UniProtKB/TrEMBL annotation:
GO biological process entries: DNA recombination; DNA replication
Molecular functions (GO terms): 3'-5' exonuclease activity; endonuclease activity
Protein name: Nuclease SbcCD subunit D
All copies of domain Nuclease SbcCD subunit D C-terminal, residue ranges: 267-355
InterPro entries assigned: Calcineurin-like_PHP, DNA_Repair-Maintenance_Comp, Metallo-depent_PP-like, Mre11_N, SbcD, SbcD_C
Superkingdom classification of source: Bacteria
Pfam families per UniProt: Metallophos, SbcD_C
UniProt organism field: Streptomyces pristinaespiralis (strain ATCC 25486 / DSM 40338 / CBS 914.69 / JCM 4507 / KCC S-0507 / NBRC 13074 / NRRL 2958 / 5647)
Assembly notes: Heterodimer of SbcC and SbcD.
Length: 388
C-alpha cells in the first residue's frame, strides 16, 4: 500500500506578516498532483491543518477545496487534529464526510476504531490519534498522571487491543500529533508542555508498522517506522536549512516500510545574513539572496541610520532585522561602584554611550547635548531648593 504522509499545513498562517495563502494553495495543488501521478492509495495528514482554532475564512475555503479535490481523486484521506486546531470545529460533519472517503479523526474516544483500508495484500488498519492534551483527556483514558506519555500510552493500548481482534496479517498505521524523543524542534512550533512533560519515548508506538507523526516542522526519521513529515512550508527563519518534503511510504505484504521524500514547492527561499550593514550591502557573495526572504543581523558597533530602508533597496524581501553589535570585552572583575569612583556625571554618561556602542563614545555634538542636559537638571534642582 502506498501512503502519502504530510502534516502541519497551518492554513491561514503568515510569515512575518506576509500572507502564505498563495503558497499554501500551491502546495495543495502539488499534493493533489502527487496523489494522481504517484498512484497513492491513501493520504495521511497528521494534524495542524489550520494555524489556529478559529481560522480565517480564506483558510477554510482553501481547506474545503482541498477536501473536494481529494474526494474527486477517489483516494481515501485520513486526518487528525493537532494542537493548533479546534478538534470540535475540524470534526464537524465527520460522519457525513466519511462517505466521501475523507476520514476526520478528532475525538480521542474513537482512537481505537480504525479506518480500514485494503490492497492486494489484505487489510490495513489506520488509527487516528488526535492531539491529546493530558489535562483534558486524562479521565477518558483513566490515567493517574496528566502527562503526555501517560495518555498516549493508554491510547496506544486501545489501538493494540483492537488490532489484536483483526484478521491475521492486518497491517497497522497510526497517525499522531506529539513530540517524540529524538525529534529536532524549530522556532515555529507551539509549545505543548501544558499538562505535563511534553516529550514521549518512541517505544510508546511499539507493535505498529508505520507511525505518521505531526507537530515538529522539520522532516525527520525517528526510526524507520516512525517519521515526521514536517511542515510543507517554512514558518520561521529557524527553518532556513530545512528541506520541505512529504513522505511517500510503501507498506509491503509483511508491513515492511520503504520511504521516499517528495519535494514541496518553495515559494521563496530563506536567508539568514550577518555582518555590518556595509558588508551586507556590498558583498557580491550575497547576490544569490536578493530575492529571498531575509533575516539580517547587523554587527555594527553603532546602530546605522535607516538600516531597514537601506537593506530593502538590495533585499526587497527583508522581513526581520536584528542588532548584535560586535563589542570589545569589558572588565568584569571591577564592581559598578569601582568603575564610577572619581568620575563626573558627564564622564559617566559618556562612558555609558561608549558601552552601548561597543567602545565608540559620543561625538562633540552629543557631548554638548549631554552637558546641556546636566546643566538644565542642576538649574532646575537649584530653583526647587530656593523655593523650598
Amino acid at each position: 500500500m502506498r501512503l502519502l504522509h504530510t502534516s502541519d499545513w497551518h492554513l491561514g498562517r503568515s510569515f512575518h506578516r506576509v500572507s502564505m495563502l498563495d503558497a499554501q494553495a500551491a502546495f495543495l495543488d502539488h499534493l493533489v498532483a502527487t496523489v494522481r501521478e504517484r498512484e497513492v492509495d491513501a493520504v495521511l495528514v497528521a494534524g495542524d491543518v489550520y494555524d489556529r482554532a478559529v481560522p480565517p475564512l480564506a483558510a477554510v475555503a482553501l481547506f474545503d477545496d482541498a477536501l473536494h479535490r481529494l474526494a474527486d481523486a477517489g483516494v481515501p484521506t485520513v486526518m487528525i487534529s493537532g494542537n493548533h486546531d479546534s478538534a470540535r470545529r475540524l470534526g464537524v460533519g465527520a460522519g457525513l464526510i466519511d462517505r466521501a472517503g475523507i476520514h476526520l479523526r478528532t475525538d480521542p474516544a474513537g482512537c481505537g476504531t480504525p479506518v480500514l483500508l485494503a490492497d492486494e495484500h489484505g487489510p490495513v488498519a489506520c488509527y487516528g490519534l488526535p492531539y491529546l492534551e493530558p489535562s483534558l483527556v486524562r479521565a477518558e483514558f483513566g490515567t493517574e498522571k496528566a502527562a503526555h506519555e501517560s495518555v498516549l500510552a493508554a491510547a496506544m493500548e486501545r489501538i493494540r487491543a483492537d488490532l489484536a481482534t483483526r484478521e491475521e496479517g492486518t497491517r497497522s498505521v497510526v497517525l499522531a500529533h506529539a513530540f517524540v524523543m529524538g525529534g529536532e524542534e524549530s522556532d515555529s512550533e507551539r509549545d505543548i508542555t501544558v499538562g505535563g512533560v511534553c516529550a514521549v519515548p518512541a517505544g510508546v508506538f511499539r507493535g505498529v508498522d508505520y507511525v505518521a507523526l505531526g507537530h515538529l516542522h522539520g522532516c525527520q526519521t525517528i526510526t524507520e517506522r516512525i517519521r515526521y513529515s514536517g511542515s510543507p512550508l517554512a514558518y520561521s527563519f529557524s527553518e532556513t536549512d530545512h528541506r520541505k518534503t512529504m513522505w511517500l511510504v510503501d507498506l509491503d505484504a509483511s508491513g515492511a516500510v520503504t520511504a521516499e521524500r517528495i519535494e514541496c514547492p518553495v515559494p521563496r527561499p530563506l536567508a539568514r545574513l550577518r555582518g555590518s550593514i556595509e558588508e551586507l550591502l556590498e558583498s557580491p557573495e550575497l547576490d544569490r539572496h536578493e530575492e529571498s526572504f531575509v533575516e539580517a543581523t547587523l554587527t555594527d558597533a553603532v546602530r546605522p541610520a535607516d538600516p531597514m530602508a537601506r537593506l530593502t533597496r538590495r533585499f526587497p524581501h527583508v522581513l526581520s532585522l536584528v542588532f548584535e553589535p560586535d563589542r570589545a570585552p569589558s572588565d568584569a572583575s571591577a564592581s559598578y561602584a569601582q568603575r564610577l569612583r572619581g568620575r563626573s556625571d558627564q564622564q559617566i554618561a559618556e562612558d555609558f554611550v561608549a558601552h552601548v556602542r561597543g567602545g565608540n563614545g559620543p561625538d562633540d555634538g552629543e557631548r554638548t547635548v549631554l552637558r546641556t542636559a546636566f546643566e538644565d537638571v542642576r538649574v532646575d534642582a537649584g530653583v526647587r531648593e530656593v523655593a523650598g
